[in-house]
């Protein structure tokens, strides 16, 4: 087990991250802020020291992938408006940091990663941290994870050329789908909400994510 609370320096850096990067921007959800005080981001960024891990920028996690800057993780999480009982699907497990934050705020988290080595490393970390309400699967997340649908929230943490239809299909009544949609270089953060047969969409601003690669995303290079 990691000494999650014993690391006083990391806990202080988390307080500072919340106070300087999240609270002054648009992050108002108290439960979201509490999750950012709790989850040890420095353990999700191999190679980065604690100071760097809590700084206001994305971090490399290997395999050419990145964890988003804390503010972007917080904004996407806040858009789901979680109360605690929800079932949430994440596409793009990566380091597991976003899933770990979600696991503090929802009842159950399902997360799909296409790169097996990342999924394995992250699964080990969840076990060591005791985050038992997260299930990981290796596969193409643009198809969702139909077995456990419908979901109260779906969050895509890679940039997509459009909204994959299977994800909209797997969204439950009142559920929200948060997805960066646009070109390979920059996207808009879209929030889609299911109200019966209708889907309501809003735009939460610009963002930059690594590409979502799969059947309903970008085609693999080569
Ligand atoms: N949420 C992650 C962000 C990782 S970066 C974190 O907190 O660290 C985006 C991730 O999406 C990468 O790990 C990449 O491999 C993965 N990815 C890209 N396309 C995917 C797809 N079709 N299905 C599942 N994962 C995908």
Which key phrases capture this entry?
7 helices, 222 residues, alpha/beta, Rossmann fold, two-stranded antiparallel ribbon, globular, 29% helix, binds S-adenosyl-L-homocysteine
Q: Considering DSSP H and I runs of 4 or more, what fraction of the residues is helical?
A: 25-40%
Number of domains: 1
Radius of gyration: 16 Å
Question: What is the CATH class designation?
Answer: Alpha Beta
Structure description:
This protein has 222 residues and is of the alpha/beta class. The protein has a single domain (8-207), classed as Vaccinia Virus protein VP39 (Rossmann fold), CATH 3.40.50. Helices cover 29% and strands 27% of the residues. The protein has helices at 8-22, 30-38, 50-53, 70-79, 97-103, 116-129, 165-169; strands at residues 59-62, 65-67, 87-91, 108-113, 134-138, 151-156, 171-182, 187-195, 198-207. The radius of gyration is 16 Å and the shape is globular. The mean pLDDT is 95. The site of S-adenosyl-L-homocysteine has 25 residues, from strand 2, helix 5 and strand 4. S-adenosyl-L-homocysteine is lined by residues 61, 65-67, 91-92, 94-95, 97-98, 112-115, 118, 140-142, 157-158, 210, 212-214, 217.
List the topology elements.
Blueprint: H1 8-22, H2 30-38, H3 50-53, E1 59-62, E2 65-67, H4 70-79, E3 87-91, H5 97-103, E4 108-113, H6 116-129, E5 134-138, E6 151-156, H7 165-169, E7 171-182, E8 187-195, E9 198-207
Parallel strand pairs: 3-4, 3-6, 4-5, 6-7
Antiparallel strand pairs: 1-2, 7-8, 8-9
The protein binds S-adenosyl-L-homocysteine.
What can be said about this structure in brief?
The chain has 222 residues and is an alpha/beta fold. It has 7 helices and 9 strands; from the N terminus they run H-H-H-E-E-H-E-H-E-H-E-E-H-E-E-E. It has a 7-stranded mixed β-sheet. Strands 1-2 form a two-stranded antiparallel ribbon.
